[in-house]
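[Meeting: bench + compute handoff]

Bench side (C.D.) handed over the final construct sequence. Compute side (W.E.) agreed to return the predicted structure before the next meeting so the bench team could plan truncations. Sequence as handed over:
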Amino acid sequence: MGYKVKNFMPEATLTFAGVTAAALLKKRTVQSLIRSQFRKLTTGSTEKQYRTVPETEEHARQIINILKSHNITPKLIAIDGLPGSGKSTLGRSLAKNTGLKWRTLYWKELRERFIFRPGYVYENIRLIRTQNLRFFDAIIYLSIDPLLTRQRIIDRDRNGTLADTVDFKRMKKVGDLAFNMLNGEVITIPHSPISIKLKPQSGFHDHKNILHALKSHNINTNPLSKEAKLQAICFGKSEDGILSYFNKTAYQDEIIKGMKAAIKRGIAIEKLL
């Protein structure tokens, strides 16, 4: 028996790895990731070269006009939305036309409270669900169909595997709630996914509104993070961090295919022994 296992395991492992890898390489998302890594080797960056988008430039102009009509000279602007929703392009355009600096936040920076500096347009997919927004003059939220943003991620060749590993519907539901919990009138840009809330005189009071919603659902609020509180309201279970949006069935079909091939190979070897 030990002899059979000894001969079976290396063959089965190689078969599993080969078949699974071949199945993964057929996915457009994985091909997108490979292209981004090749770009990094040749150019030093996974990003495609930034280009201005006329439509986004027009949206930025309209946002600036809205700020001016409310006598707001912005010192801090927040942009939130799903991956692929256009946060970076809009943020860069706003920064260029307002004299502010553009800054994308890294996921690891949102593990704790981030210290925002005046003079910036900050953007991240989890900004409004994790941070204290009291100092921002305007919150911009890009609400786009998860299927569309998924396709955009694949097409832009930055990290296409995010389209597989992230549950975009769950992420959007929490993002929508986080934006809705902010006080203030919703201002939209026609024919765009852009919604804006300007800071009310009394403040956004999102934490207060979240606590009120939790109490109405009879959910214990301590010691939950802001994101965990929002998820508790959405799904009845408090989770936070980027892993809470992980798609647990990502690559399930490819793995099963590899396992079946490995078992089939093992059976064939056993018959020869």
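W.E. noted at the follow-up: The radius of gyration is 23 Å. C.D. will use this when planning the next construct.
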